[in-house]
Amino acid sequence: QITELLYILWLQRVSRYDGDLVAKCYFAKRKLVWEVLEGGLKSKIEIQWSDITSLRTIYRQNHPDQLEVE
Fold first, then answer.
1. 13, 22 in Cβ contact below 8 A?
2. Looking at residue 1, what is its pLDDT?
3. What region holds the TRF2/HOY1 PH-like domain (predicted)?
């Protein structure tokens, strides 16, 4: 899943190119992963399912869809 915006508390990352910000859900490994490609280097943010207390999706017309992870 290609992501356009990643916002973590005070950090906001907006995608500039197709594929430089990607969200993945690994069911077998039970984790959510965001991959950020910047300057040729890939960074990952991994969240174990056991650390997630809630998920919320927000859909608004003419705005990016949002997934809130708590």
1. no
2. 53
3. 6-70
Position 7 pLDDT exceeds 90 = no
**Cβ neighbours of residue 26 closer than 8 Å, sequence gap 6 or more:** 32, 33
- pLDDT, tens digit (0-9, with 9 covering 90-100), for 11-38: 667 788 888 888 899 999 999 998 888 8
Per DSSP, the three-state class of 26 is: strand
Count of the separate structural domains present in the chain = 1
- Residue 16: closest CA among 37, 43, 32: 37
- State the Cα–Cα distance between residues 53 and 39, nearest whole angstrom: 33
How many CA atoms lie within 13 Å of 33's alpha carbon, on the beta-carbon side?
13
3-state secondary structure of 51: helix
